[in-house]
Amino acid sequence: MKFFLFLFCISIFAEENLSEKSLIPNQSFDVELEDFGKVKLEAHSVDFKLKLILKKSDKIIFNFPEKKTSWSFEELKAVSFFDIDGDKKKDVVLVLDYITGIGPEAAVPFSVPLIYLSKTKKFILDEKFEKLSEKLYKMKKEITIKNIKQIYKSIR
Questions:
Q1: How far apart are CA 94 and CA 112, in angstroms?
Q2: Rounded Cα distance, 56 and 16, in Å
């Protein structure tokens, strides 16, 4: 019982931290998604983490799962909506900049792709994410939506 109360309190606290101040306005969009209809995807920067939510009629209807990392979120560089996995549903593809916060390059940002696959009434983090990140890193190419599309096709 204590555990559920704890989770409920965290959930309320997280929603209270989402405000106009934390909103990333140039990376928040009105979009039509197959399982949700017309919604607004809002991106927020909260405590060095990226928080993505879907809103309908100013109410949060979905919280995207967060990427588990020790890195600090720096910038959301790109957001795109398209079917990356061939299921005829729009997925959400992002390019983010993180910093490690540790060592001689602590404040040097590096880009990371993040893919949310559309499933019935939810989005999940793509498990192929790590393979994609490694491949792009080894290629020493700038991480862009176009590169993500190309590489993703090769690992499908």
A1: 8
A2: 17
- Tokens describing residue 81: 């909506």
* Contact assessment for residue 69 and residue 58, using Cβ atoms and an 8 Å cutoff: no
If one compares 78 and 67, the residue with the highest pLDDT of the two is 78
Cα→Cα distances 107→14, 103, 127, Å: 26, 9, 28
Query: Residue 142, Cα to own-chain centre: how many angstroms?
Result: 18
Question: Residue 46: is its pLDDT beyond 50?
Answer: yes
Q: Give the Å distances, CA to CA, from 94 to 16, 61, 82.
A: 24, 20, 11
Mean pLDDT of 20-30: 93
- Contact 148/115 with Cβ under 8 angstroms? yes
Sign for the CA dihedral angle at 105, 138, 125, 27 comes to: positive
Give the pLDDT band (50/70/90) at residue 12. very low
Domain 22-155 grouped into CATH 2.40.128: yes
Rounded to whole angstroms, the Cα distance separating 87 from 12 reads: 34
Three-state DSSP state, 1: coil
Which residues are paired to 85 by β-bridges?
none
- Alpha-carbon gap, residue 101 to 109, rounded angstroms: 10
Tokens of 33: 């998604």
